[in-house]
Amino acid sequence: MSTLKVKTPLRFSRFMHVVDQGNGISAFYNSLNQAVVYASTEIATTIKLQSTPFTPTSLASLLQLVDKKPLMALLRQLWGKKMLLEPDEDEMIDVETLRTFLAKPDIAILYLLVTDACNIACGYCF
Questions:
Q1: Which of 50, 78, 97, 104 is in the most buried spot, having the most CB atoms within 10 Å?
Q2: What is the reported pTM?
Q3: Residue 84 — φ and ψ, nearest 5°?
Q4: Quick one: DSSP state of residue 30?
């Protein structure tokens, strides 16, 4: 992941979702790392329609923004939370890392709260 610049081409992560919260606020949610970033619904609606790689400058032009600073601040937040990626960046590496980590459950202590009638023979008991 390089530094976000005005001319850096970007695309959205396939794990990013946009949820309208009401009152003109929308939430960008990354289902992979559970990060949340809030923005105005107007900007979020325009952003979620971007299906091809774009630059921050082209997005500012599309939104007809005179001051690009708030948009750049939002894009930096999305970039930092891995919701924005470079077009050739492989986000499946993070998925494989999570799968590897989650595939190894480590049970250190197990408490069984059973009744006097328990014979550990229920179908759901392991």
A1: 78
A2: 0.68
A3: -115, 135
A4: E
